[in-house]
């Protein structure tokens, strides 16, 4: 075999330079063939395979677009303030402060400090979930026979552990996550109805309102009733832009949102960051 020796393995590995797979990061991101922004502004371009994860630190004002390419991606998302990871996405506050359990354009993703981590500035899918969180090792082992990170059916929490470790975080730092592209609705009796995907090509765009660490696991939604582990590629693109400004429609949309933006602005100003 050509790879039976160290030299052969090296030559084989080097021969792969420049080849592309369907799911992989593009480095430099400027090489992405059709950027959604001005030339030179793209800072992250990646296609995440089903059953895989990614992570990145994004500057305040950066816009992040997630796209469900084939209709069966599910982007489970966690956010942390980049240099203060104890301030992180709080799904319960995101729901209750805004009086809305359904994510979509105009919604804010809040921390437990009453500040805005990111805002949803565009959404063509409408199939998201803030109630169920991601899958677990125990549940995936029961359903698919395994849920470890290297198996064919990895659990979202297990992948989040890997992404967290690469950012100096531990399993105890993993709160409940949000899910994009696979929806859940609450019935009159309080039970949950899995509504699934809106189909291929749906996208959601978030704007970072602080410097944030982003963790994403692309795995099936835990309420997906299909017996097979179905998870298709997720496109991730991010580009330099500007944070939401006072007086903007998103800032002024609701009293609760305005207070969250004011809390964020005051905190950033005190640190000399805005």
Question: Which features does this protein show?
Answer:
single chain, 274 residues, alpha+beta, 6-stranded antiparallel beta sheet, 6 helices
Low-pLDDT parts are none
Helix content: 10-25%
Structural class, from helix and strand content?
A: alpha+beta
**Roughly how many Å is the radius of gyration?**
19 Å
What is the spatial order of strands in the main beta sheet? 1-14-3-12-7-6
Cα shape: globular
The average pLDDT value, as a whole number, equals 95
**Strand elements, count:** 14
| Amount of beta strand | 25-35%
Distance between the termini: 58 Å
Summarize the main sheet: 6 strands, antiparallel
Q: Helix and strand succession?
A: HEEEEEHEEEHHEEEEEEHH
> Can you count the helices?
6
Provide the domain count.
1
Pfam families: DUF1989
Region (Disordered): 1-22
Biased composition (Basic and acidic residues): 9-20
InterPro entries: DUF1989, UAAP1
Structural overview:
The protein has 274 residues and is an alpha+beta fold. It has one domain (45-270). Helix content is 20%, strand content 28%. The chain has a 6-stranded antiparallel β-sheet with strand order 1-14-3-12-7-6. Strands 2, 4, 5, 8, 9 and 13 form a 6-stranded antiparallel β-sheet that branches. A two-stranded antiparallel sheet has the order 10-11. Strand 6 and strand 7 (116-123) form a beta hairpin. The chain starts with 5 loop residues before the first helix and ends with a helix.
């Amino acid at each position: 075999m050509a790879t039976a020796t160290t030299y052969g393995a090296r030559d084989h590995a080097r021969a792969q330079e420049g080849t592309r797979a369907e799911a992989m990061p593009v480095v430099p991101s400027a090489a992405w063939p059709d950027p959604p922004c001005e030339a030179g502004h793209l800072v992250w371009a990646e296609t995440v395979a089903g059953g895989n994860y990614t992570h990145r630190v994004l500057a305040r004002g950066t816009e992040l677009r997630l796209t469900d390419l084939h209709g069966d991606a599910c982007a489970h998302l966690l956010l942390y303030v980049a240099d203060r990871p104890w301030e992180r996405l709080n799904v319960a506050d995101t729901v209750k402060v805004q009086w809305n359990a359904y994510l979509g354009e105009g919604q804010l993703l809040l921390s437990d400090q009453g500040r805005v981590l990111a805002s949803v500035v565009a959404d063509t899918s409408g199939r998201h979930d803030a109630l169920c969180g991601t899958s677990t090792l125990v549940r995936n082992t029961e359903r698919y026979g395994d849920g470890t990170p290297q198996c064919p059916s990895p659990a979202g929490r297990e992948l989040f552990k890997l992404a967290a470790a690469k950012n100096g975080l531990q399993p105890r730092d993993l709160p409940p996550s949000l899910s994009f592209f696979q929806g859940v609705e609450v019935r009159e009796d309080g039970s949950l109805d899995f509504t699934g995907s809106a189909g291929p090509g749906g996208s959601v765009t978030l704007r970072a309102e602080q410097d944030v660490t982003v963790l994403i696991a692309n795995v099936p939604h835990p309420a997906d009733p299909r017996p097979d582990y179905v998870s298709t590629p997720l496109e991730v693109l991010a580009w330099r832009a500007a944070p939401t400004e006072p007086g903007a429609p998103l800032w002024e949309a609701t009293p609760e949102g305005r207070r969250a933006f004011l809390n964020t602005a005051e905190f950033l100003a005190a640190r000399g960051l805005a």
